[in-house]
Amino acid sequence: MDYNQYNFTGKQWVLQILLYVAIDGIVSILFYRSILAFLLFLPGFFFFLKQRKADYIAAGKKELSQQFLTGIQAVSAALAAGYSVENAFEEALEDMDRVFEKEDKIIKEFTYIRNQLRLNNTLESLLLDLAKRSRIEEIENFAEVFCAAKRSGGDLIAIIRNTILCISQKEETKMEIETCLSAKRLEQKIMSGVPFLILIYVGAASPGFLDVMYYNPAGICIMSLCLVVYVAAYMWGKKIVDIEV
């Protein structure tokens, strides 16, 4: 499985289409009050779909990264108990079966590693393959360190423990940042909806007050400029609260 690609299920396709149609309809009604605007904005679905895929990919990588830390901690415990490296991954899988569901990403990956080891594939190649498919920095670092330790014949248990410590510290930092930014992300989402609420309120409280902004070139240009500014502000705000460690 390539974690940098995402394929929507049938149900998700329907959900994305309905969601974009709703957004397109709201924008067309509030900013233009025109069916033509609704039709003109339909091609934007492809940009919307690209962004949604990016969001799903980011969420999947985040989930795998957190689960991978638990996985290698289980591997480290098995190594400390005297298991060989290959058997440690199989023992870790049995431990994680009590923590995760069968559909969780780390269970699928460790199951794949176990099955491939039984087919005499090397653990180094399997970890490097996972790092290549995920492109997650923590997994890439672990795979590189693990392969170097195997080649050099160093203290594998100590090296893995040190690597786990570094990854754990980074995950803790991420969690602290997520906690600090959670309120700001909520504020950003609320503020993103304020312009729409204002247009709805003015249209309901004072019918005809905004009529001058519709059905004439000057009004259409002004509303289009407002929409562009809104989209730019939304993307800027989303980028500000999206901090990578």
Question: What is the topology?
Answer:
Layout (H helix, E strand, L loop, with lengths): L9 H23 L2 H6 L4 H36 L4 H12 L8 H14 L4 H12 L2 H16 L3 H50 L11 H24 L5
Helix pairs in contact: 3-4, 3-8, 4-5, 5-6, 6-7, 7-8, 8-9
Share of residues in strands: under 5%
Number of strands: 0
Mean pLDDT: 86
Question: What is the H/E string?
Answer: HHHHHHHHH
Largest sheet: none
User: How would the global form be characterised?
Assistant: elongated
The radius of gyration over CA amounts to 25 Å
User: Structural class per helix/strand content?
Assistant: mainly alpha
Terminal CA distance: 25 Å
- Please give the domain count: 1
Q: What this model shows, in words?
A:
With 245 residues, this protein is mainly alpha-helical. The protein has one domain (10-181). The chain has nine helices and no strands. Helix 3 packs across helix 4 and helix 6 (123-134) packs antiparallel against helix 7 (137-152). The radius of gyration is 25 Å and the shape is elongated. 13% of the residues are buried. The mean pLDDT is 86.
Structural descriptors:
elongated; 9 helices; 0% strand; single chain; mainly alpha; 245 residues
TL;DR of this structure?
79% of the residues lie in helices and 0% in strands. With 245 residues, the protein is mostly helical.
